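Quick start: read one record
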Amino acid sequence: MNILLVCPEFPDTFWSYTHALRVIRKKAVMPPLGLLTVAAMLPEHWGKRLVDLNVRPLTDPDLAWADYVFISGMAVQREAARRLIARCKAAGKTVVAGGPLFIGEYALFEQVDHFVLGEAEITLAPFLADLESGTLKRTYRTRQFADMARSPVPLWQLADLGSYALAGVQFSRGCPYDCDFCNVTAMLGRKPRTKTGAQVIAELEALQRCGWRGPGFFVDDNLIGHRPALKNDLLPALKRWQKSRGPMPFITQASINLADDPELVSDMVQAGFDAVFVGIETPDAGSLAECHKSQNRNRDLAADVHRLQRAGIEVQAGFIVGFDHDTPAIFRRQVDFIKRSRIVTAMVGMLHAPPGTRLAARLWQEGRLRGPSSGNNTDGTTNIVPAMGLENLREGYKWLLANLYSPRPYYRRLKAFLSEYKLPEVRSGVDLARVWAFARSILRLGIIGTERIEFWSLLGWVLLNRPTLLPAAVRLAVCGHHYRKVCELHGLTT
């Protein structure tokens, strides 16, 4: 049995980092972790082949080789998935689909032969049993949540790891909070479940055996959701591993109340975490109450961010405009907050209502749901009817992005961040690939780019004041180049 696992293309979005990847000569951000994990659950003697369409095209020989095509994706990959499914069906292939896109929208994909929905540790086994007996059903799904101890080491050897900027690793699933615009808890529950530290170390070892020497991304929706397991198992294991097999810097996602626990922050830094994405959403108390973001209320969010930055953790953050409580003043308030908190990677999006969320249910009842979410809240569109009016929201959003990502305010914020940021304890060394990436950034940003004055000013300032932070400065400058390109692509420049 030959199984072709295919990841559809990602469009050019904030998180695709398409334009930044070109500078560092990579093709995609991360390998498709879900498909590689599913591959490890298939019978060992089966043939398995991964085609990530963000890395290479799907060929006719690929399709001719395959008995079944397994497809997974997210909402933002919807149209690419449709094209992919149509091509597979035209080639006479049986298509099996799973993942976040299909959990909420499987009824819209009539050409898919079989759906394996929910966590594959539960739903894949009955599919395989029925495949063996010739009694396949169209849909396999469950309301149960998997025991993460059963999750295998992903088959990293199927991926062309040299094409990626990061390697994804997962420790936990689920989040204890219940923000009404987020579908994580609908899919994965509010009781976080974890792997053991030994499992994670086994995954890192497997990555290194496949030649990986870059940074890792813990893809958990909230790494600190199960603090006892994190503190007592994962972090001690990672600290030991960094000393014997590192360095490997890590990025992750966590709630802002991480800043309340200095000991945990210190342990994470020692374990290699040098960046964390936090959902701040808004500085407006009424909007935080509206979306049930309880963990962000009644606190000094900017001070929390500063504590993490000074400990050696770069804070990347998500922000939202378009809540019912938002007035036109929110755009200025968001810019002022982001400037004050020195957050360089500030992902500001218009409010969307994904399927399965309380927000989508409420807006549907109010007649304010305009269709499915695109899965991309940074393209200047939304699937809701905002209280402030769609045109007011879009115009305010364009103004906000111009005041965040235009070269002058962006580089000013970058310098402010670097002036306070503590050098991480675990960091990658300099190699030939990084030297060439630096040279290409000089060409793209310092010679060709519209930001060349700000770029050279930044380099001069860093070399005089914080020379050890030069790699971070160049990396964030390249990211800023990408953010501006994405704004131009979606007509969000002013």
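The mean pLDDT is 96.
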